[in-house]
Amino acid sequence: MEENGFEVLEQIGKGSFGFIRKVRKLKDNIVMARKEINYSKMSEKEKLQLVSEVNILRELRRKHIVRYYERHIDKENMLIYICMEYCENGDLGTLLTKMRRENTFFDEDSIWKMFTQIVLALHECHHFKNGAVLHRDLKPENILLDKDLNVKLSDFGLSCVLKRPLDLAKTYLGTPYYMSPEQVDEKEYNVKSDIWSLGCLLYEMCELRPPFNGKNETELWSNIKSGRYRLSQNFSNELHNIIRCLLKIDPNQRPTTDDLIQHPIIKLSIREQKFEDQKLIFEAEKMRISQREKNLTKKEAEIEKFKEKLLLRENEIKLMEKQIAERMQMIFERENTLLSIQKSMEYQQTDNMIERRLSPKRSHLKTTTPFRDRTHQVVNTNYIPQSLYKTPELKSKYFSDRWKQHDDNPN
């Protein structure tokens, strides 16, 4: 189905706000995830949160933050469409649910890799150029995974911007399982609240369940404020220690993203990812060069074919030139023949004209085959008396008299 320049491929999500659909932009063939939000029943506060999410996503263009493309507003149907990067492997929450069902676990290397990428994404938020961005809803469902299982942090609908990272916020939002003790106590909080949520997220990647739970909200609040949890011994001391640091009751004792980036394992993981990124760039460049070589080979083959066609054409032209030369020679010969015939006809016409002029003076003579003398005048000798041929003198006298008579009376 096509609408507004997009081909709708499938529905990939649904919530109270509306739908998320996988779409393809017809203009450039890019596959996107499109949020379709009905704002007709939204409060002013919810509308402001929506505007805030769009503005933050538009500015936060980083590798491990879901990319924002564009938005469209359908005022007639009171819908807003937000087009974002499409992540082929869905979200981390769906993956964890599947792993719980299948009783499978992440290996520690995969945990460190995803955790490092989340730290990098959160670091970009906490060091936003316009002020620190508190995500305030860090949970598995908001961690998207691309085709290579790389992390893309999403859903900034509950985010807020602080002028400085350690400034305090007072609005109490988020998912209960991942809320920090200061939020539970309805105290002021800052970016360290996101660090607590990060610890809960890391714990869940290890154990496939949140670190704090309860039969009801009161018990859950009590467990969060106590900071007590159990982590199996299947993981390294480094992983235990970092979870312990992230889940400190006192926010001042929790590390910042700057501290986390300096952790030896995370530093190593960042270096490995940079190497992998360079490797991907190298592979992409290699593929691009290979494709260019194929294109060049194809063009060379086309040029060779063109050369062959050109050679055939040249041979055809040479053959045509030869044929034209032969025809020109034939034409030249015919022209010479025609000129010869024309001259002969002119001579004949001259003979006939002279004969006509002479015919009245010798009407008693019969016309026979003429001969030419030096003046090109036609003289009929068949009826000249034979006695004149006996001596040259008589013959000469006869012709002189005849020509004189003709000249005196041309008609």
From TrEMBL:
Residue span, Protein kinase domain: 6-266
Reactions that this protein is recorded to catalyse: L-threonyl-[protein] + ATP = O-phospho-L-threonyl-[protein] + ADP + H(+); L-seryl-[protein] + ATP = O-phospho-L-seryl-[protein] + ADP + H(+)
GO molecular function, one term: protein serine/threonine kinase activity
Record-linked InterPro entries: Kinase-like_dom_sf, NEK_Ser/Thr_kinase_NIMA, Prot_kinase_dom, Protein_kinase_ATP_BS, Ser/Thr_kinase_AS
E.C. no: 2.7.11.1
Keywords of this entry: ATP-binding, Coiled coil, Kinase, Nucleotide-binding, Serine/threonine-protein kinase, Transferase
Sites where the protein binds ATP: K35
SUPFAM superfamilies per record: Protein kinase-like (PK-like)
PROSITE patterns: PROTEIN_KINASE_ATP, PROTEIN_KINASE_DOM, PROTEIN_KINASE_ST
Coiled-coil annotated residue ranges, if any: 289-323
Membrane-spanning parts: none
Pfam families: Pkinase
Family of the protein in this entry: Belongs to the protein kinase superfamily.
UniProt xrefs under PANTHER family: CAMK FAMILY PROTEIN KINASE (PTHR44899), NIMA-RELATED KINASE 2 (PTHR44899:SF10)
Protein name: non-specific serine/threonine protein kinase
